[in-house]
Write a structure and sequence with these properties.
Distance between the termini: 27 Å
Number of helices: 3
Radius of gyration: 13 Å
Keywords: Activator
Number of domains: 1
Number of strands: 5
CATH topology: DNA Methylphosphotriester Repair Domain
Pfam family, one: Ada_Zn_binding
Shape: elongated
InterPro entries: Ada-like_dom_sf, Ada_DNA_repair_Zn-bd
CATH architecture: 3-Layer(aba) Sandwich
Strand order of the largest sheet: 1-4-2-3-5
CATH class: Alpha Beta
CATH superfamily: DNA Methylphosphotriester Repair Domain
Mean pLDDT: 95
Low-confidence stretches: none
Protein name: Metal-binding protein
Helix content: 25-40%
Oligomer: single chain
Order of helices and strands: EHEEEHEH
Length: about 90
């Protein structure tokens, strides 16, 4: 898991480092730290969050292992599966 705020000292540095990690395939999903939600990098909900609250994941297993749940907007099938599993507990 990468914390967006730790990828550089300013917005320009963070942007360069984030794009590099995405191109190399290390970052594939984004997350909202406060609500512990993860989703696609292209999700409109994720693009609105503050840098201090944004985290990145390499894959879905990493996000789930960190205790995050799928976004209902950009990952509706994964969200339904997660929600059904929560109802069983």
């Amino acid at each position: 898991m990468w914390y967006h705020k730790d990828l550089g000292r300013n917005a320009a540095e963070r942007g360069v480092q984030t794009r590099l990690l995405i191109r190399k395939g290390y970052i594939r999903l984004g997350g909202y730290q406060k609500a512990r939600i993860y989703g696609l990098l292209s999700c409109s909900s994720g693009k609105k969050m503050k840098v201090a609250n944004r985290v990145f994941f390499g894959d879905e297993a990493e996000a789930l292992a960190a205790g995050y749940r799928p976004c209902g907007r950009c990952l509706p099938e994964q969200y339904k599966t997660w929600k059904a599993a929560q109802a069983m507990q």
